[in-house]
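thought: fold this chain, then report.
action: predict
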Amino acid sequence: MDDLVSIPRGFYSGSAHAYYDENGKWVPSATQVLNLVGLSDYSRVKPEVLEAKRAIGHEAHALCAEFDINDFVDPSWASDAAAPYLKAYLKFREERRFVPDKTKVEKPMIAVIHGMPVGVTPDAPGTLDGYAAILERKCVEASQSSWAVQTALQEMAIYGTNFCGRAQRFALQLKKNGTYKIDPHHDHKRDASRAIACLTTVYMRLDEGQRLWEMV
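observation:
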């Protein structure tokens, strides 16, 4: 992989969406952890539909991150498919006084949670209504319980702890009609314990010799 970049505790490949420790050993990402324990399963979605949705989500994420980092994005940059999601995000930013930490937006890192390395790329840590917040963007209509585990992993990674509660955690659902919905994650103790349980399951499988990097 020609696009490996150095990050805290290792390396990251943007093209492969893969993390590696300082010795080149594969490190599971937060998203991969959810997939490997069965909490995020899109196997019933037709591949062509899933790929189209991923492409739209990737474009919308990139445009939102551009706005977060540089305080500007030209709506004409968005395709017709991604434009409503960008509109929803700009509306959210204006209405809810969300201020992103520009140094942490979409910045990949490897954290160690409960002794287990995990790759994390938080969408947009910052402040919401003046309080510390961790925002995960989602370009989907229906919420998923796995999102709370995902933001728990992000919080623990950002703050270097094995628990949650230092920041507001929420998924921001950007919708194709140009509106948004905030999906808050308040149960810090439960979400942290579930996140650690998911990580433990993945590392047990690795300890058993399963080649999980070939399954994601």
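thought: worth noting. Helices lie at 30-36, 47-70, 83-96, 146-159, 188-207.
final: tokens above.
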